[in-house]
Design brief:
single chain, mainly alpha, 0% strand
């Protein structure tokens, strides 16, 4: 269910913060006298603004900040070791892609080989669907 919305509702925040031009401010003020949707939304926005004005950000104690910085300094962040691990992962991914591609080529060559006497690869005759249906 879509919430009803007035065309002036997007200007209400600017109205509260006095960011509108004099002309737009007067239009919104006049509109608010007759629009119950905007009146309700204005009340909700004012509640949120009131809450945010009362909100105070707590400062961290200097000892906590110093503790965090000391712990960060103690961590062994060796950039060469990180690069080595990154290279190992990259080469592993590349090797698995090449191996998968080579296996696919080999399997397709065996599956579509014209020489059936020397090919030991066989395709199954029944499907998974026929297995569950009880047929072969």
């Amino acid at each position: 269910m879509k919430k009803e919305q007035c065309k002036y509702s997007d200007k209400l925040n600017a109205y509260i913060d006095a960011e509108l031009s004099k002309h737009d401010f007067d239009k919104v003020k006049k509109h608010l006298k007759n629009c119950h949707l905007c009146q309700q939304e204005l009340r909700e926005l004012m509640k949120v603004n009131s809450f945010l004005k009362n909100y105070q950000e707590e400062e961290l104690a200097e000892s906590v900040i110093q503790n965090i910085l000391n712990n960060a300094d103690q961590m062994n962040l060796d950039p060469q070791r990180f690069r080595f691990k990154q290279r190992v992962v990259s080469f592993s991914v590349a090797a698995s892609i090449i191996l998968s591609f080579a296996t696919g080529v080999l399997m397709s060559n065996l599956a579509f080989s014209q020489d059936t006497e020397t090919t030991s690869f066989e395709l199954g005759q029944s499907t998974l669907y026929s297995y569950f249906e009880g047929g072969e």
